[in-house]
Amino acid sequence: MTEERDGSELTPSADSRPRGRRTAVVRTLLSAVLVAALALAVERGLAWRDAERREQARADVVEAAGDEVVGLITISARTTDEDLEELIEGATATFQDDLREQADRLRQEVVENEVEATGEVVSAGVVSLEDEEATVIVAARGTVDNRSARQPEPRSYRLEVELQRVEDSWLVSALRFVA
What we know:
InterPro entries: BRCT_dom. This is BRCT domain-containing protein. Residues 83-179 form the BRCT domain. It is found in: Membrane. By secondary structure, the protein is an alpha+beta fold. It has a domain at 63-177: Nuclear Transport Factor 2, Chain: A, CATH 3.10.450. Helices cover 49% and strands 29% of the residues. Helix 2 packs antiparallel against helix 3. The protein is rod-shaped, with a radius of gyration of 35 Å.
């Protein structure tokens, strides 16, 4: 049996081989673009997560520093023991020892002079923040009333607060009044 031919060949056309190559090239390029886009999305996601963690750490150190400053400048002859204990709880072990050494003298002065002091944080800013250490400047204002004052006296405070991460908490390791 012989097959008749009409003059056309049964070989692949000249266009079909390059089209197959073009399709493979296009698929390869699309795959490369997809992989690059995925890599970029992962990198951006990790960068966003890192920025969120850093911002949360900044908020945490500002809150811890502010709480300790308010604890320091808000004290009452009626609640001295509780006020001092709260202040001590927000400190590192070394700073707790320093505060305990001064607590009896401070308690005596507050009670004898019938001190009523209140305060609030006006502003705070992070000076430095590392994985385990931070420094925050806190500006606060308050009033101090005692038995020798005619009326409560306004006060302004500027403190440099050093903090250390202890487990999952930021604790104060040093407080300094600054100008």
